[in-house]
């Protein structure tokens, strides 16, 4: 279960994502809207993990991000921004490809066939509603979750429209531009939204 706090972010997610995408050579056009997102949980409950689908120019952009209460050591180049969250305080927003906790969540979902977390909205600690999923995500693998190996860190080998991340004995491929082709990998995360579907995260065994 993924908990969403009814809160104000300053700057907003749209402002953060738009400013960051404007600095990326692989992204062309202006951010005009948000289609939706899917989430996977950090078992420790410390890192927020969200993969957002955005309308940018004539393209759909897939943007995995992580939210932390403190800086992530060694990931300075992947910090998108800091934001003031009215419920949680200062949050550090990262490109999730450099966040081992987020990458492990994506890897685990792809290998075990997990579905995205249901999202429940809370306001000042009180349950408000369960948010209907606009975007759905399901892994294709059939591994037992206990068989997914642990790794301490990740190495981003390429950082573009198809980002490649080494995580232990795996390479996780993240498609950032939805172009009708699938992410490379033996297992994957299949994502669907109102106007499309595709494999946006792929996993290769090294």
Automatic annotation (TrEMBL):
Superkingdom of the organism of origin: Bacteria
UniProt-listed InterPro entries: Mak_N_cap (IPR040999)
Residue span, Maltokinase N-terminal cap domain: 20-99
Keyword Kinase included in the entry's annotation: yes
Pfam families cross-referenced by the UniProt entry: Mak_N_cap
UniProtKB keywords: ATP-binding, Kinase, Nucleotide-binding, Transferase
Protein name: Maltokinase N-terminal cap domain-containing protein
Organism this protein belongs to: Nocardioides luteus
């Amino acid at each position: 279960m993924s908990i969403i706090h009814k809160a104000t972010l300053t700057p907003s997610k749209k402002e953060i994502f738009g400013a960051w995408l404007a600095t990326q050579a692989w992204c062309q056009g202006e951010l005009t809207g948000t289609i939706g997102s899917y989430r996977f949980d950090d078992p420790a409950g410390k890192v927020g993990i969200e993969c957002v689908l955005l309308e940018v120019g004539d393209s759909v952009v897939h943007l995995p991000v992580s939210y932390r209460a403190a800086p992530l050591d060694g990931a300075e180049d992947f910090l998108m921004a800091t934001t003031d969250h009215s419920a949680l305080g200062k949050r550090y927003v990262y490109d999730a490809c450099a966040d081992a906790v987020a990458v492990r969540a994506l890897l685990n979902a792809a290998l075990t066939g997990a579905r995205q977390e249901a999202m429940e909205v809370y306001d000042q600690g009180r349950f408000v509603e369960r948010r209907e999923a606009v975007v759905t995500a399901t892994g294709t693998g059939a591994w037992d979750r206990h068989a997914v190996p642990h790794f301490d860190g990740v190495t981003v080998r390429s950082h573009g429209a198809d980002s490649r991340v080494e995580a232990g004995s795996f390479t996780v491929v993240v498609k950032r531009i939805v172009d009708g082709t699938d992410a490379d990998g033996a297992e994957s995360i299949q994502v669907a939204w109102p106007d499309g579907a595709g494999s946006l995260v792929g996993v290769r065994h090294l």
